[in-house]
Amino acid sequence: MYKAFSFRDDPTVPSFDDYAPVAVMDAECAFCSWSARLLHRLDKSGEVRICPIQSPLGAALARHYGLDPSDPVSWLFLDEGRAFVDLEAVIQAGQRMGGWARFTVLFRVFPRPVRDWLYRSVARNRYRLFGKADMCALPDLLFQKRLLQ
């Protein structure tokens, strides 16, 4: 378990404004790109920022939390300096955003090993199931403002 804001003490993680939650996602995955756009629509506060795992910051954060940025099979969500991965990241993001997104908490009916297996199964096959897309090429200017590079 990592202490809150542990990335601040890691010299390999570039300094960034960590005042708000950050979702570190695969910018090349069509499903992840769709999820990023959904996050953008559901987050009425406009606080949650999105960081492509392929960016220098995203890759450094992923490595800090033991994830492989060259094979991003996990979603990383930082909230108040605490890190969440896999479906726990989705659930935390949903609770943070409120509204319909809070229904992500229903995933907790499954034991954690089942949630982890389900998430990893989809993540490992995401390109085959959903294809590739470029999240950063999206034309929405408000969405672009959320991106951390």
Question: Please, could you describe this protein's structure?
Answer:
With 149 residues, the protein is α+β, with helices and mostly antiparallel strands. The protein has 6 helices and 4 strands, in the order βαβαββαααα. The protein has a 4-stranded mixed sheet with strand order 2-1-3-4, sandwiched between helices. It is globular and about 35 Å long. It starts with 21 loop residues before the first strand and ends with a helix. The mean pLDDT is 85.
* Poorly predicted runs: none
Task: Write the element-wise H/E pattern from the N-terminal end onward.
Answer: EHEHEEHHHH
For the biggest sheet, the summary is:
4 strands, mixed
Shape: globular
The percentage of residues in β strands lies in 5-15%
Radius of gyration: 14 Å
In helices, the fraction of residues equals 25-40%
Q: Would you spell out the secondary-structure blueprint of this structure?
A:
Elements: E1 22-25, H1 30-42, E2 49-52, H2 56-64, E3 76-79, E4 82-85, H3 86-97, H4 112-124, H5 126-130, H6 141-146
Quick synopsis:
The protein is of the alpha+beta class and 149 residues long. Helices cover 39% and strands 11% of the residues. The chain is globular and about 35 Å long.
